[in-house]
Design brief:
GO terms for molecular function: hydrolase activity. This is Glycoside hydrolase family 43 protein. Belongs to the glycosyl hydrolase 43 family. Keywords: Glycosidase, Hydrolase. By secondary structure, this protein is mainly β. The protein has one domain (about 1-285): 5 Propeller (Tachylectin-2, Chain A). The chain has one helix at about 145-150; strands at about 1-5, 10-15, 20-30, 40-45, 50-60, 70-80, 80-90, 95-105, 110, 125-130, 140-145, 155-160, 165-175, 195-200, 205-215, 215-225, 235, 245-250, 260-265, 270-280, 285. A hairpin with a 4-residue loop joins strand 2 and strand 3. The longest helix has 4 residues, at about 145-150. The chain is globular, with a radius of gyration of 18 Å. It starts with a strand and ends with a strand.
């Protein structure tokens, strides 16, 4: 067993599975986040969100898998009674891309799903996340990297019902510089990272996403003015979390409490998952003590 503070994960994602009374934790392995060849993706499981059993090998690429480094930001969603992992991968000479993997159980093993990556072939992309709209239509929201466009971009693209591919062209939702709290890096680039969609209790659709802030890596809140995925989107003036941490997601524990997990600090290899209890108030999130 490991305490959550001993797990060197970036980009943490926690999936509650109520019928098992178990939480599953996925993330980017800190040791190989930037250099080296990762084995794949691991998963931990817990009954209390504090002590975690594992790691278990959730994904191990077979010979011939197209990517060999930068295995980033795995997140797992239950959809039509299967489990789908959205994750970012890279290979020399190929743009970074989001690939979908599938399994019959949250612990895996996960295997590539569909014909290949679901982001455009010539775009540098990362951090795809699943969103199912009010009509049951699946979408992927993802980032186009500042490495290619300088001002990082956030897109949505419709997925096929079986999540095997895309329908139509990606739709631009916003650029990173549109958020008042986002600041450029040393070379003038604006970062887009880690989108996660959430429907507030009053029906408002919001998005957590991360960029650089005044005090380092930060996570802000964007709001859909139409209540629909394609927006238009506006941004809160101040970050929701500005303490050199981010790439967060929201979930409810088995008692109904709303929890946020993200990694902090944003310094390799010191990054760790943290879990913060929140509540909705005044159209935003506040920390519970």
């Amino acid at each position: 067993m490991k305490h959550i503070s001993d797990i060197n994960f970036r980009d943490p994602f926690i999936l509650p599975v109520p019928e098992e009374g178990m939480y599953y934790l996925y993330g980017t392995e800190g040791a190989t986040a930037w250099k080296g060849q990762p084995q794949g993706f691991d998963v931990y499981r817990s009954k209390d969100l504090t002590q975690w059993e594992g790691p278990f090998p959730a994904f191990r690429p077979e010979a011939g898998f197209w990517a060999d480094h930068h295995y980033w930001a795995p997140e797992v969603h239950r959809y039509r009674n299967r489990y789908y992992m959205f994750a970012s991968f890279k290979a020399d000479g190929r743009p970074r891309a989001t690939q979908i993997l599938a399994s019959d159980h949250p612990i895996g093993p996960f295997a590539p799903h569909g014909a290949g990556p679901v982001t455009p072939d010539d775009w540098e992309c990362l951090d795809g996340t699943l969103f199912v709209d009010v009509n049951g239509v699946p979408w992927m929201v993802f980032c186009r990297e500042w490495l290619q466009v300088t001002d990082g971009e956030m897109y949505a693209v419709q997925l096929t019902p079986g999540l095997t591919g895309t329908i139509g062209d990606p739709v631009l939702l916003f650029k990173a510089s549109e958020a008042p709290w986002s600041v450029p890096g040393k070379e003038g680039q604006y970062v887009t990272d880690g989108p996660y969609l959430y429907r507030m209790q009053d029906g408002e659709l919001v998005m957590l996403w991360s960029s650089l802030g005044r005090d380092g890596y930060a996570m802000g809140l964007a709001r859909s003015e139409s209540g629909q995925l394609l927006g238009p989107w506006c941004h809160d003036p101040e970050p929701l979390f500005g303490e050199d941490g981010g790439h967060g997601m929201l979930f409810r524990d088995f008692h109904g409490s709303l929890l946020l997990t993200l990694h902090a600090p944003n310094v390799n290899p010191q990054e760790r998952p943290i879990v913060i209890e929140l509540e909705e108030a005044d159209r935003t999130f506040i920390r519970r003590r």
